[in-house]
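Weekly modeling sync, notes
Attendees: S.R. (lead), two postdocs, one rotation student

Agenda item 3: backlog of single-chain predictions. S.R. asked that every request posted to the team notebook include the full sequence so nobody has to chase files. The rotation student volunteered to paste the first one in as an example of the format we agreed on. Action items at the bottom.

Example entry:
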Amino acid sequence: MKHCKLVLTLAAVALSGASLAQITKVGDAYQMRMKFAPGQKLVYSMQSTTSAPGQPQPMNLDTEFSMKVNSVKNGVADITYSVGPMKMNGRATGGVNTATMKMDTRGKIVGQTSGGQQPTQMVLPDKPIRVGQTWTSTNSIATMGVPMEVTNTYKLNRIVQKGGRSLAEVSVTISAKGNISSSGQGTMLLDFADCSLVSATMNQTITVRQGGQQGAQPMNITNKTVIQRKN
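Predicted structure, as returned to the notebook:
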């Protein structure tokens, strides 16, 4: 179970920040900013499959998360973030964890969070991005009692048409180092029309080093996470 929480934390850092992102054409580039509206609520499903050494079968975890805008003042939104309940291999586990935070239009958390664990959001680029360009965000998190610095590199791959909608395809590469390290790649689709994350997929490998245990071999955990908007 703790391995699933770890990989979901890393996937959420990389993928969930664009849930309320607005995309605007500026010349030959695209500006990405959060679009907040009081009462707005986006709900997503998340499916995760994790494999680890000594595990007889993969762990399949199903859950959902949501972001609700409570109020907006001077471009800063008060947001409630909820995740859960979860199902592990079809069995219910845990309840709903809720946190509140203040977030600016680039996705930075600028006010104190209350409630559950603070979700770490993707920070949007500070200037318009052309197709093929990249930007990077670094987040400090703690999971399984271990502090980690996670670096995510994003790239605007292309603008596509799907189901009558204009979508921005963004790829992400994740990297984290330390006693727990991670590497992975993913892709997300952002909707121009309603300014939301439509879907996302992340594949990653997490390496856990057994600190203080002489001769202990690192443990490699593999994971695939898929996120889909529900509303």
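Discussion: group reviewed the output briefly. The domain at 2-229 is CATH 2.30.230 (Lipovitellin-phosvitin complex; beta-sheet shell regions).
Action items: rotation student to repeat for the remaining queue; S.R. to check formatting next week.
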